[in-house]
From TrEMBL:
Keywords, sorted A to Z: Iron, Metal-binding, Oxidoreductase
Keyword Metal-binding listed: yes
Pfam families: Oxygenase-NA
Domain Fe2OG dioxygenase: 135-248
Stored Gene3D superfamilies: q2cbj1_9rhob like domain
Sections of the chain in a coiled coil: none
Molecular-function GO term, any one: oxidoreductase activity
Record's protein name: Fe2OG dioxygenase domain-containing protein
Keyword tRNA processing annotated: no
Amino acid sequence: MSARVDFIPAAADVARAGTRLADHDWAAFAAAMDGHGAAVLPGVLSAQECRALAALYPHEAHFRSHIRMARHGFGRGEYRYFRYPLPDLLGGLRSAFWPHLAGLANDWNARMGLARRYPDQHADFLRQCHDAGQTRPTPLLLQYGPGDYNCLHQDLYGDLVFPMQVAILLSEPGRDFTGGEFVLTEQRPRMQSRVEVVPLCQGDAVVFAVHNRPVSGSRGSYRVTMRHGVSRIREGQRHVAGIIFHDAA
């Protein structure tokens, strides 16, 4: 097993990423999430941070499991789930995103008639997950090569599910890879699926609905079903960091 690599040792680097996150227009973000079920936050990570995080992929000591998608019918490509403790930068971002998402998630659940409410601190939600038997960390690092893709899916993992998750593009489109667009589909009742392609630059984060989201109708809000995936890589290699806020059973 390869040795664990500590790639961002300075607390200042984690703080800078948190500051960049805090500086975004969160009112515009909430409007985009309500309108489309996804929103892009540009420049959450620097190019150097992206390269350093992607460079962890070969080092098995950071990860609890390795999934090859073709073996399970998920598509082509592979990913690895991090083990605890998470790399400082990834764990710091997971905590830093939470206060900006939890209130919107509570509003969504209220509009969809769901009783679940989320606490102010992510650590408190993780305790709920662990008390329910969901103890395995879910942040992950994905790697795609030529011809690889990710089928449309939802990342649920247990009874406790936070309704939003984050993907951060670590590779540079047009230089490191071509193709590989992030794709969302939305299925409304009695309607055909709507597809949206979300363009990303290196370091951009996309926040998106995991499972359902509310949409306003003539008789109040109703639920639509969301799925996400990645189109076929034409050339090169694409790395993505995924931040899922609930742990797995």
